[in-house]
Amino acid sequence: MIKKLNAAKKAIEYIKDGMTVGLGTGSTVEVMIEELSRQIKKGLHIKCISTSNRTTKYANTFGIIIHEFDSVSRINLTIDGADEVDPYLRGIKGGGGALLYEKIVAYNSDKNIWIVDDSKLVNKLGNFPLPVEVIPFAARKLLLKFESMKLNPVLRKTDNKNFVTDSGNFIIDCRIGEIENPKELEMNLKMIPGVVEVGLFIDVADYVIIGYSDRAEVLEK
């Protein structure tokens, strides 16, 4: 918990009065939201955009108003988490099931910060299962396709039911192992009809803030 808090506090230093801020999804972001709510109560004036229903509900419990994505022309800064980060600041995201909206919000942001603890740092991406968001109509065929590609796919389930994203899609988690060429894999997967989005985030993060038990360190692109 202290590692996440140290990363969260450091990230909040980048938020300035009057900004429009994107809020990512996940447990580390939720620590940041709690800390951010304290700053708002002290007088920080910002607009917040959410990447998931989960984040919206969590922010609302701390009195943070979430604005509609289409109500803002640009997002100054988005703070999100990551499931894995490599030395090139590439990441795997989507463990919380919000990869599509996270990528859309990130694309529309001037700057992107990821906050992680040191356990998320890897030399090569791929030990964490790669989430691929897919159209339900195509899910069964895509499972077979991914099996033929030796991606070891598993349809994500919650309480023995298919996990459904905020946009009504399914997620296939691919247990690939180390990914030699993340960008090429992302492009190849996105060319397959029925694939909506891939949890590889390449050239997205401007800063990665790593939380340790006694400090936070900033990696910059």
TrEMBL record:
GO terms for biological process: D-ribose metabolic process; pentose-phosphate shunt, non-oxidative branch. It holds the Pfam family Rib_5-P_isom_A. The keyword Zinc does not apply. It is an enzyme of class 5 (isomerase). It catalyses: aldehydo-D-ribose 5-phosphate = D-ribulose 5-phosphate. Pathway: Carbohydrate degradation; pentose phosphate pathway; D-ribose 5-phosphate from D-ribulose 5-phosphate (non-oxidative stage): step 1/1. Keywords: Isomerase. One of its GO terms (molecular function) is ribose-5-phosphate isomerase activity. GO terms for cellular component: cytosol. It comes from the Bacteria. Gene3D superfamilies: 3.30.70.260, 3.40.50.1360. The active site is at E102 (proton acceptor). Coiled coil: none annotated. InterPro entries: NagB/RpiA_transferase-like (IPR037171), Ribose5P_isomerase_typA_subgr (IPR020672), Ribose5P_isomerase_type_A (IPR004788). Substrate binds at T25, G26, S27, T28, D80, G81, A82, D83, K93, G94, G95, G96, K120. Its EC number is 5.3.1.6. SUPFAM superfamilies: D-ribose-5-phosphate isomerase (RpiA), lid domain, NagB/RpiA/CoA transferase-like. CDD domains: RPI_A. HAMAP family: Rib_5P_isom_A (MF_00170). Homodimer. Belongs to the ribose 5-phosphate isomerase family. Catalyzes the reversible conversion of ribose-5-phosphate to ribulose 5-phosphate. PANTHER family: RIBOSE-5-PHOSPHATE ISOMERASE. This is Ribose-5-phosphate isomerase A. It comes from Ignavibacterium album.
